[in-house]
Amino acid sequence: MITFSDLYSVLSAMVPLYAAMLLAYGSVRWWKIFTPVQCAGINRFVAVFAVPLLSFHFISTNNPYKMDVSFILADTISKLAILMVLASWAKFAHTGSLDWMITIFALATLPNTLVMGIPLLTAMYGSFYGGLMVQLVVLQCIIWYTLMLFLFE
């Protein structure tokens, strides 16, 4: 049974994130506070400074010697299986292409765990599972994003 304290912990993790997104959307669409040029500047700041620094924070606090090997192995095997299925589709199907293979792989296996997933998972299941997501983010940044860049080239 879901208790009030469980609901409160999940909502206290989700409401600030979604409230910020709703206010940002409203400030551009409805209230016209930001111009498209200012939005481009904010997007550049987020892409160049905020997300890399947040990623660095999570990567630097992770201890690679205490990573859960079976969890990482399960995640890696599932991503490789999806990659092999998509590569077969891109090679043998007449509608398949490398561009769509990369896009579908990214959508299916590389979630937005850094900003939304870790706070929500920590609120729902505790800090242990938030730590597991941090391990996935570390591998995402080191291995899977590098593979994506290689495939794009």
UniProtKB/TrEMBL annotation:
The UniProt entry, under Pfam families, shows: Mem_trans
Q: Where does the sequence pass through the membrane?
A: 6-28, 40-59, 71-90, 102-126, 132-152
> To which protein family does this belong?
Belongs to the auxin efflux carrier (TC 2.A.69.1) family.
The parts of the chain that form a coiled coil are none
Q: Name one GO molecular function term.
A: auxin efflux transmembrane transporter activity
Q: What is the lineage of its organism?
A: Eukaryota, Viridiplantae, Streptophyta, Embryophyta, Tracheophyta
Record localization: Membrane
Which region is the signal sequence? Answer: none
Keywords, in A-Z order: Auxin signaling pathway, Membrane, Transmembrane, Transmembrane helix, Transport
**Keyword Signal (UniProt):** no
Q: How does it sit in the membrane?
A: Multi-pass membrane protein
GO annotation, biological process: auxin polar transport; auxin-activated signaling pathway
Please indicate which superkingdom the organism of origin belongs to.
Answer: Eukaryota
Q: What is this protein called?
A: PIN-like protein
Can you list the GO cellular component terms from the UniProt entry? endoplasmic reticulum; plasma membrane
Asked if the record carries the keyword Membrane, the reply is yes
Q: What's the main place this protein lives?
A: membrane
